[in-house]
Design goal:
Number of helices: 26
Protein name: Acetyl-CoA hydrolase/transferase C-terminal domain-containing protein
InterPro entries: AcetylCoA_hyd_C (IPR026888), AcetylCoA_hyd_C_sf (IPR038460), ActCoA_hydro (IPR046433), NagB/RpiA_transferase-like (IPR037171)
GO molecular function: hydrolase activity
Shape: globular
Largest sheet: 9 strands, mixed
Helix content: 25-40%
Structural class: alpha/beta
Pfam families: AcetylCoA_hyd_C
Keywords: Hydrolase
Distance between the termini: 61 Å
Radius of gyration: 28 Å
Length: about 700
């Protein structure tokens, strides 16, 4: 039985006493980290060079602080309100400042996007690994302690139940592999009552852990990034992506504005179908694509995504994610064929008999199997050659079963599989408020199940293939070459922006599954201090997805189907969804390298791919409320949103001298009134320095 500890100092003492020599600490990604314990351990070990510490993890989250004094003033009350008592990780602060002690090292396989581009230590400590191989690679790094924040349910009589909550993704496989290999591993749970209790595959027994820490500091708020605003480009991409998903199919999407855009587009397709069809007709003119799916959802969708994001929860609550999958191949095949009744019935028995999945005579093992799946009544028992159940009796022949010997409902069916979750405050609260019946629709499980097709515990490959019907795996990328290679994790010079994560896993699945497609989405351009650049390029030095795995590519200007295409067709189709300001240059480059005929010309319909044209196309839907800035709400109030918009304009202008000059000139006229609360919020209420006076005028001009 695990030791139960109630204070952090004792927990740290016990951990250090049980592990000899260096501590190689494995932590879940995202909200699964037990921050309070990790900080206590870090502070203790930072002062003791005789005990090296290696931290192995991914996605170490930190509350936003702001890059400028203006941003810091604005963010302080917002962060206090949204993040509450969430404690930042001490090792993140040190790593960001490149001030980790010499005997402490941080090794991550996924980092917060673009946060460590200029951090040599973080770049050197990065482990390039597919999500599904992270367990293998962390074990190779010598992990000997695994610490995780764990949800708890306190029941009558002092009994406790434990759940890995939003992070069963790697933990179960990690523990299994260590125990199989005989590799020493101390498993530490830190209870956090703020974590939603996810039942089913995420629930574990008390004996899963070696130490359980129930300290007050562990029950802190979860990291809850507010919903981002959805831009016009994101909505156009989301609408295109939503038209690629067949009814009855399988969906994977990620977090952020693009994930929200896709979810909102799917809701629009279901609830305001005429408007959706009209938008697709309009947006699809630049790159016509046969076989789009624009009808309402009769069968619904099944969600299978490494990240269970807020957009997927919205689709689940709206009833779009409702196609249930079964934990048994025979049942799943019947369901796929439309031959499985909604509840156990004599017709289901006959269908299983006809398929050879059920033998006429039940053995004890078969009886237990079909009771576990819900086909047979839990009280049914086999006595010799007779079956008995609550006053009913018949010979052991399933052809003779009376309806009273059948179960009431199928068991173990779900509509959503996920590996981890991360979302805004409302997302966590909704999960905490769900009934057991609602939670049963969601199975948080191992990443080996979600991200791969090969056999994993309790899920043979054949079952996964049957469940993942007509899958659409939608992921984002940063750069796409005209020959179909994608760069999603690093810059051309090798510096890591984020990590591969599970993207390669899903792209490979799309090519291995019948009827599946990979969808890589990207905005056609990006604008930063280096100026406006195309994200569709001739070549790029970093490659996340090789060109031989090219499939569907989506920008705000359309969809390019690259599967089975020649190199020339690939170039042509991508040029049709590129920003028109870059099309000619890209076309000439492809022609210079012999990949495009010298006389090929862009179709007329593809020559107007501009932000202005896109804005005009989407304006009616925006004005009708079909494409709101925050489709699933926001933690910011109206005043904060107003300030944010102004600050974004100023930040963008700071990277573009001409734009900044124009803003400065516009601010020289009569000064507009600014609410006093805004000035106080930004620390500009007593502007005395020239810098503050200028900022105050610029703010007034941009509100």
């Amino acid at each position: 039985m695990p030791a139960l500890l109630t204070d952090l100092d004792t927990a740290v003492n016990t951990l250090l006493a049980r592990v000899d020599g260096p501590v190689h600490l494995a932590l879940p990604l995202g909200i699964g980290k037990p921050n309070a314990l990790v900080n206590a351990l870090y502070h203790r070990m930072a002062t003791d060079p005789s005990r090296p510490l290696r931290i192995l993890t991914a996605l170490s989250l930190e509350k936003p602080a702001g890059a400028s004094e203006l941003e810091r003033h604005f963010l302080a009350p917002l962060v206090a309100r949204v993040f509450g008592d969430y404690p930042d990780l001490a090792y993140v602060k040190a790593a960001r400042a490149q001030a980790l002690p010499a005997h402490i090292e941080l090794r991550e396989f996924f980092v917060k996007t673009a946060d460590y581009l200029g951090n040599d230590a973080a770049q050197q400590g990065f482990i390039c690994s597919n999500y599904s191989l992270a367990v293998r690679d962390m074990l190779a790094q010598g992990a000997n302690v695994l610490a995780q924040a764990v949800a708890v349910r306190r029941e009558a009589g002092g009994r406790r139940r434990y759940s890995l909550s939003g992070n069963p993704d790697l933990t179960a496989d990690f523990v299994d592999q260590c125990r199989t290999l005989g590799q020493p591993l101390l498993v530490v749970a830190v209870l956090n009552e703020q974590l939603p209790f996810m039942p089913g595959t995420a629930e574990v027994g008390e004996d899963f852990f070696d130490l359980i820490v129930d300290a007050p500091e562990g029950h802190h708020a979860l990291f809850a990034p507010p919903n981002p605003a959805v831009s016009k480009a994101d909505y156009a991409i989301g609408l295109h992506a939503a038209s690629l998903l067949p009814d009855g199919g399988t969906l994977q999407i990620g977090i952020g504005s693009l994930g929200d855009a896709i979810a909102q587009a799917l809701l629009l397709r279901e609830r305001r179908n005429g408007e959706f069809r009209a938008l697709i007709d309009t947006l699809g003119r630049a790159a016509p694509l046969a076989g789009r799916h624009t009808g309402r959802f009769e069968q619904g969708l099944y969600g299978c995504s490494e990240m269970f994001a807020n957009g997927l929860l919205q689709l689940l609550d709206a009833g779009l994610i409702r196609r249930r999958v079964y934990p048994d191949l025979a049942l799943q095949r019947l369901a796929n064929a439309g031959r499985l009744p909604a509840a156990p019935s004599l017709a289901a028995v006959q269908a299983l008999l006809a398929d050879g999945a059920l033998a006429p005579q039940l053995t004890p093992a078969a009886l237990a199997h079909w009771q576990h799946l819900g086909l047979l009544h839990p009280a049914l028992r086999l006595d010799g050659d007779r079956l008995h159940c609550e006053g009913l009796s018949c010979a052991n022949d399933v052809n003779l079963l009376p309806a009273g010997m059948l179960g009431a409902a199928w068991r173990g069916t779900v509509a959503m599989h996920g590996g981890f979750f991360l979302g805004p405050r409302a997302f966590y609260q909704r999960l905490r408020d769900m009934s057991d019946g609602e939670l049963a629709d969601i199975a948080m499980t191992r990443i080996a199940f979600v991200n791969e097709l090969y056999d994993s515990p309790g899920a043979p490959e054949a079952l996964k293939r049957a469940q993942r019907r007509d899958a659409r795996f939608i992921n984002t990328t940063m750069k796409m070459t005209l020959l179909g290679a994608a760069s999603s994790d690093a810059l051309a010079d090798g510096r890591v922006v984020s990590g591969v994560g599970g993207q390669y896993n899903f792209v490979a699945q799309a090519h291995a599954l019948a009827g599946a497609r990979s969808v890589l989405a990207l905005r056609a351009t990006h604008d930063n201090a280096a100026g406006l650049q195309s994200n569709l390029v001739w070549s790029h030095a970093n490659c996340t997805i090789p060109r031989h795995l090219r499939d569907l590519v989506v920008t705000e200007y359309g969809v390019a189907d690259l599967r089975g295409a020649t190199d020339a067709e690939c170039v042509q189709r991508l040029l049709c969804i590129a920003d028109s300001r870059f099309q000619q240059g890209l076309m000439h480059e492809a022609q210079a390298h012999g990949k495009l005929a010298p006389d090929w010309q862009l179709p007329e319909a593809a020559r107007h791919n501009t932000p202005e044209a896109l804005k005009a196309l989407l304006r009616p839907a925006r004005e009708a409320g079909a494409l709101p800035d925050f489709p699933f709400g926001t933690d910011l109030d109206d005043d904060e949103l107003r300030i944010v918009r102004a600050l974004k304009k100023l930040k963008h202008a700071s990277h573009h001298p001409l734009e900044l000059l124009q803003l400065a000139l516009a601010s020289l006229g009569p000064q507009r009134a600014v609410p006093a609360a805004y000035l106080q919020r930004l620390g500009l209420d007593d502007a005395r320095s020239l810098k503050d006076v200028v900022l105050r005028r610029l703010l007034a001009a941009n509100l």
